[in-house]
Amino acid sequence: MAGTATRYLYLARHGEASPDESELTDNGRRQALLLGERLRRSPLSTVHHGPLPRAEQTARLICEQLDDVPMQPSELAGDYIPYLPQRNELPSESADAMLARLAQFPAEERESGPELARAALAQFTGPVDGDEPRHELIVTHNFLIGWLVRAALDAPKWRWMGLNHANAALTVIRYAPDRPASVLFYNDMGHLPLELRWTGFPPELHV
Question: Does pTM surpass 0.90?
Answer without folding.
Answer: yes
